[in-house]
Amino acid sequence: MNGAIVPSLSHMFLGENLLAYLVLALGGALAVGNTLAIIKPPEKAKSETDLAKAPIARSIFMALVGTIAAIWAIASLVS
Known about the structure:
By secondary structure, this protein is an all-alpha fold. The protein has a domain at 16-41 and 52-78. 57% of the residues lie in helices and 0% in strands. Helix 1 runs antiparallel to helix 2 (56-78).
């Protein structure tokens, strides 16, 4: 095994916390996007198949899932 390249954590692409950063980004986007869909729905539908407003129960549930994921990611990054 002379000359074998062994990856180390110090040289990982985008650092060793890549997964936590991705969960933070996706969770935050999920929370913000669904919250804004509830607060400010689009003024008019883009097509006939679009809903007039977002389904409230599903949007609240998805916003909570995103918030939990973002909080979990922040806790992982801090600890």
